[in-house]
Amino acid sequence: MMARSTCWHSSCQFLQRSLSSGPRILLVCVIFVVLLLLTYPSSRSLLDVNTWCFLTSTRCVYPDAQSASGKPNIVFILADDYGWNDIGYHGSVIRTPNLDRLAAEGVKLENYYVQPLCSPSRCQLLTGRYQIRFGLQHSLIWPPQPSGLPLDEVTLPQRLREGGYSTHIVGKWHLGFYKEEYKPTNRGFDTFYGYLTGGEDYWTHRQVGGLPGQPQTWSGLDLRDQDRPVTDQNGTYSTHLFVNKAIEIIAQQDKNKPMFLFLSFQAVHTPLQAPAEDISRYSHINDSDRRVYAAMTTAMDEAVGKVADALKRHGLWDNSVLIFSTDNGGRVDKGGNNWPLRGWKGSLWEGGVRGVGFVNSPLIQSKGRTSDALIHISDWFPTLVGIAGGSTNGTKPLDGHDVWEAISEGRPSPRTEILHNIDPLFSTVTSPQPHRWGNHVFNTSVHAAIRSGDWKLLTGYPGTSIYTLEMHIRSVNLSQWREHCANKTTTNISTFKVHPCPRSRGHIGIYFDVIITIYCDHSGLVAGIKLKPYQNGYHTKIHTKYSSKISENLPGPQMKFGVLVHGHIFYDVSCLVTICMIFLSLHMFVGNTSWVPPPSLKKPWEEPTDPPGKHLWLFNIREDPEERTDLSEKHPRVVQELLEKLAAYNRTAVPVFYPSFDPQANPALHNDMWGPWR
């Protein structure tokens, strides 16, 4: 669209010369303009940028950066796990002056959707296609998995590079790296400075990991400049490191060539780490997780401000489009908050998929407003290719839409529907409540959701997050155990991120961290297993709430602690022959259905009152964005229509690809680095 400015330049010069040639020539000019508008209707948006300056002056002044190609620079900033209630203009206690200013000057996207998890959002951003199209419906891509964005998918940087753009990624990749072909510099990016996995230490830039059901003892550096390990930044905070690299790229950008910069921050993903000076700004926040999270957000806010300033300082701003987006909802167990929306990261509730987002650019026609246009993260592919003057011909069929006119001019969005996901591997409704629709159209025990117009339908258990617990009981030879425990009074087996016990009615409880500790004497005799919750204001209360219910159901006087999962109690009993140890195989989070106020409101979590086994909901999202009133019984025809839409999407889905973890991924086998292993 913007690439046509050269055509307008020539046309307007012709018109300008003609205005002084008399009435007849003027009439010809008017006819010429009408014909041109009919031929290029989408170019009408350029009139205020190009045409009027030619018609009203003898010389038009362009930004220096635009004179060469006319194509805009594109800066896409992606925050990680950033919650709906964590930005200033949504009423957060967290201060975000730079984000607030940039959003206020541009267009706030208040009906904008992402995916519930990291990898799915990124794959849809870079391909414009739903995750059901390439088998990434389930969970995300874990570091030891031989998985990645399929190589036959055309990516956004590939298409932009074909159009003459320099393409750069700084920060998080998280779309697979088990083979060289999957790394970002082989997927369309000219340069890569960042990390390949899903998260790491902000200061040391190391990532831990391991195989399911085993202690997470793997550790490796995950920071590289192109293919070179970066070993001299231990102690540099990643938000500062990545913004400095982004500014360096901006400063070195060739003004004769357009730039695509994908700044994919680690912030505000776990671990909760921030510079001390930023934490001190929030000493008034009592909740320790929320305090550090706020500090992380402030560091990110300042970094975004520095990027905008760099674009202006180096003469690129006037012909740039800056986009800010989260990749999914915030984690309420790790300082984030999505209030008043329901649920959080990993769920199909609004708190997991409705994202913070805005666009700022001098090229926007109608600035300083809030947009209610329905937009999905998959829309960025055709939108950005469009404003770059490129074409989506040659790609696989897209699910994304070009929404630039909706953003820039306030026109209606061409999008009317969003498939949030269909995950056939996640079906945890053990005793589904019968309903009038049955399963003949679509299996409503499957984790799925769709938005069509103002309606949103959810099926299965929408509160899924990252791991599913699989409990395994293993017998340990007593003599081996005694040898292991010699001269020890306590053996801390490992620390796992797990969930509290689900209610007996089949609903999964709320997430928190647990330390599983086996207590034994010097001979190895087990004294008990302790489940210690993460000491956070929310979590202690939740643990107390559920632990009393658990203890009532524990059989036998020797029972110390029990874990209730999907209605089954697993426990340890002291004996001289066998020690039963609980190992956790982590595949997907289970949980999250609540409304969670921020700690500053000092209000309890609001629990849903759904009956046992409920696995179908219908909401009018425009009228009820908090998803409090299920309308499925009042609007059965709408439910039927949306079930048919889910079934139609499901028929086009490719099988889920979720391979087993590979022990060859261990960084110890690759010079202490996370990287390709096949």
Characterization of the model:
The protein is α/β, with parallel strands linked by helices. The chain folds into 4 domains: 2-61, no CATH class; 78-209 and 223-416, 3-Layer(aba) Sandwich (Alkaline Phosphatase, subunit A), CATH 3.40.720.10; 425-461 and 615-652, 2-Layer Sandwich (Arylsulfatase, C-terminal domain), CATH 3.30.1120; 469-586, no CATH class. 26% of the residues lie in helices and 20% in strands. It is built from 16 helices and 25 strands. Strands 9-8-5-4-10-1-11-12-2-13 form a 10-stranded mixed β-sheet, with helices on both faces. A 4-stranded antiparallel β-sheet has the order 15-16-17-25, covered by helices on one side. β20 (512-520) and β21 (526-533) form a beta hairpin. It is globular and about 60 Å long.
SSE blueprint:
Elements: H1 5-18, H2 23-39, H3 47-56, H4 66-69, E1 73-79, H5 97-105, E2 107-109, E3 112-113, H6 118-127, H7 156-162, E4 166-172, E5 191-195, E6 206-209, E7 218-221, E8 224-225, E9 228-229, H8 238-251, E10 259-264, H9 276-280, H10 288-313, E11 320-326, H11 350-353, E12 357-360, E13 369-371, E14 375-376, H12 380-387, H13 404-408, E15 417-423, E16 447-452, E17 455-459, E18 469-477, H14 478-484, E19 490-498, E20 512-520, E21 526-533, H15 537-552, E22 562-565, E23 568-571, E24 578-586, E25 616-620, H16 636-652
Parallel strand pairs: 1-10, 1-11, 2-13, 3-14, 4-5, 4-10
Antiparallel strand pairs: 2-12, 5-8, 6-7, 8-9, 11-12, 15-16, 16-17, 17-25, 18-24, 19-20, 20-21, 22-23
Helix pairs in contact: 1-3, 5-10, 8-10
